[in-house]
Amino acid sequence: MTDAPEPVVITAADVQHLAGLARIALSPEEIDHLAGELTSIVDSVARVREVATPDVPATSHPVALVNVLRPDVPGAVLTQEQVLSGAPDASEGRFRVPAILGEEQ
Amino acid sequence: MAAQSEIVRWSAARLAESLAAGEVSSVEATQAHLDRIGDVEADVHAYLHIAGERALARAAEVDRLRAAGEAPSALAGVPVAIKDVLCTSDMPSTAGSRILEGWVPPYDATPVARLRAAGLVPLGKTNMDEFAMGSSTEHSAFGPSRNPWDLARIPGGSGGGSAAAVAAFEATVALGSDTGGSIRQPAAVTGTVGVKPTYGGVSRFGAIALASSLDQVGPVSRSVLDAALVHDVIGGHDPNDATSLDETWPSFADAAREGAASGSLAGLKVGVVHQLDGSGFQAGVRQRFGEALKRMAEAGAEIVEVQAPHFEYALAAYYLILPAEASSNLAKYDAVRFGLRVDPGGSTVEQVTALSREAGFGAEVKRRVILGTYALSAGYYDAYYGSAQQVRTLVQRDFDQCFAQADVLVSPAAPTTAFRLGEKIDDPLAMYLNDITTIPANLAGVPGLGMPIGLAPEDGLPVGLQVMAPLREDARLYRVGATLEAILEREWGGPLLAQAPALGGAADRGERIRTTPGTAPAPGYGTEPDGGTL
Known about the structure:
The complex is a heterodimer. By secondary structure, chain A is mainly α. Chain A contains three helices and two strands; from the N terminus they run H-H-H-E-E.
């Protein structure tokens, strides 16, 4: 067992910051609600630290495979039309996006 | 020709025999299922999209191939339902999310392509919790599915649509995906069978990713043999999935047939995981679980108790690993390449992305993506994601020790029978507990099977057993599962689903859904504005 975990509090400001990182706009009500929910969820899952001692290696995949390669030849690829078929907006064979930079940038 | 009401109750194995013998055509079988869907779908809501005419056209094609002596496989002509998490080039694939509403992918997922190549007939796409995040289908953006045993209750999740479809005889077999129990838990609460194969046993190419180190595609059915037959079709190496295992698998159908025929479990060591033995679970679940162990012992199995001390940390590790991976996987929904775009005009692409994700994601998806973003943040990564990955090692070691003492491990497949719609929707932590017995297998990658073992005396609802085997030993699940199934069905005098209440009230109320020809179902029963018939 490592250090006794300190109780975690996720504030509305934390949620606002995380939502920005995750690119999800949230209403003030959603932010307040999530702050409470995430605090209780994180409080519950933080117990993984109780048994994660330094001598235990991490596992990222259940069945570890290394160097999964294929011959370096062109494979089956989608056509440009197929690639653009689900795009919200496209023009001249390309994805069309709103402005990249805002006025202040 | 057999009556529609009869054909829809047949197993895939039985239907395949009749198709081969020319007693029934695929068009007749497909039409029987579309009629059944029309009768009960307004009540069950298992489907997000119904293939209708397209399914009949494919069935006719398969019938022609068969007539020419070119039936592509033993299951050619058998109708199948496909979880909406799998990409289909001819049907919308939404993963239960508004952000993908109406999106038709430019390609088929490998398991879908293999079903098609084997001549199975896709009937439609089944409902699910949004991006497979949930245990009840209540997090579907398109409304919940309902449990055919009691329409006021959940069919499990996330693959509740596939489980409800086979339980309500709206499909012969179905495909699901299992990240923490999404095949096995719905099987448990609907009295059906579902298998999560060994990680890497079935390709995930074209499966809309939730948590890539946990996701696995598998079969959903009403019998162990049917699950094995489907697994034989969809499994095996796929160079398009870098996690796909490049090895030769035995016939799982042969394993199931052997198990059913032998009737004996002599020499088999069955480990009861002390940490999942059901203390604290619903009384009727515990009772049926105890009885199933007794039946296995009577059939010659040796029952041993095994210890997996770190399983109690599995749920916590899972709810760090899954959100972390989901937050990364779901970053692709950027309102640029596909999916919903909300553009009020005059905004930057970054603002449009955020607004689109606000509108397109439901509450549970937002919760988990933000939780995952937190777990991966600088300063917290080691404490949360890193520790969870260490727990994963400890869970794998526990499995290794258990399998040193037992050939298979068993537990209840879910802690309770089906709960009421709405009962846990406002309490995420209570909802997460539904997968407490199924999550360890995903963390370790081992295969698991869910199958019915009776009805809980207190509520008359199905109880499921989970059987787990070591990595790559999926055949063991089918052998053991089929033996136990045969013993139980002799005791019950038939399949458990024969005891399910009759559906069809919707048809009586005049709410029959038109599935063919080409007429749209009532609004709300498809992801498409036209109801999604064609």
